[in-house]
Amino acid sequence: MENCGIGYQNLILSAALTADSSVAALPVSNLTSPQGSSAYAWRALGTQATLTIQFAQASPVRAVSLHRTNLTAGASWRLVLRLHDAVVQDVTTAMATTGGQTTFVFPPDLVADAVQITISDATNPDGYLSVPLAYVGPLWQPIRNFSTDSTSGFNLGVDEVTALSGAEFPQMRWIQKKASIAHQSYGAAEADILSDIQAVAARGENILFIPDPSAPALQKQAIYGRLSGGDLGNPFGAADRRSWTFNMTERL
């Protein structure tokens, strides 16, 4: 088991993006939008498409994740990392998409200046690929893991009508994953990184949280969205331990 991973440096936001297929009204540049609605997505015609992300300079890449997509459980992808045109990593695997979300974590210390993502979803009933949100970039992992006091759950958008007889007719509008991550043992030297994370979140950018980057089952529990954090605490006096609790809500 690895310590949790936090992705707050989304290289897509400053990269040159190209795709071999896109709808004019839903271009690949929509991936720089923080909104998770399909109205702000990159939409590719057909059931296979390739996205190329060219960075301004070589950068560490640990996680690639797509969120709020229309991809089915049968989708697969090929991920190619390149540095100065040389292939650093080439992986083809099933996406294990759950709820339109998929995440892949590479071994640490990979550096690339371009990432190519080829998505295949031959059985997609929509006949097109819709990707509103994507993260490509490094993961920061604290020296110690979060507390067992942490919780996760859902915010539910439900309209309910109750008949005179008392019968209830709920209509689900949306489901939003959420988590409250309590951490009581950050190192004092990590305080600056925590400040950076909060500054990025305050600008409205999405943050990626993965409970355990080494466990595929826990990668499915990743949340990509808004982060709101409380104050940094010092509950153990002279000990090298700082506390911080932050809330994550999936971006819809």
Q: Structural class of the secondary structure composition?
A: mainly beta
For the termini, the CA-CA separation is 29 Å
By DSSP, the count of extended strands is 16
Compute the number of helices: 2
Strand order across the biggest sheet?
A: 1-14-15-16-13-12
- Regions with pLDDT < 50 over 5+ consecutive residues? none
Shape: globular
Q: Which percent band covers the strand fraction?
A: over 45%
Major sheet summary line: 6 strands, antiparallel
Give the helices and strands as they follow along the chain. EEEEEEEEEEEEEHEHEE
Account of the protein in words:
It is a single chain. Helices cover 6% and strands 48% of the residues. The strands form four sheets. A six-stranded antiparallel β-sheet has the order 1-14-15-16-13-12. It has a five-stranded antiparallel β-sheet with strand order 2-4-9-6-7, with no helix packed on it. A three-stranded antiparallel β-sheet has the order 8-5-11, with no helix packed on it. The protein starts with a strand and ends with a strand. The chain has helices at 191-202, 216-219, and strands at 5-7, 16-19, 42-45, 48-60, 63-67, 76-83, 86-94, 102-105, 111-120, 128-131, 133-137, 151-162, 168-186, 207-210, 223-229, 242-250. The protein has 252 residues and is mainly β. A hairpin with a 5-residue loop joins strand 12 (151-162) and strand 13.
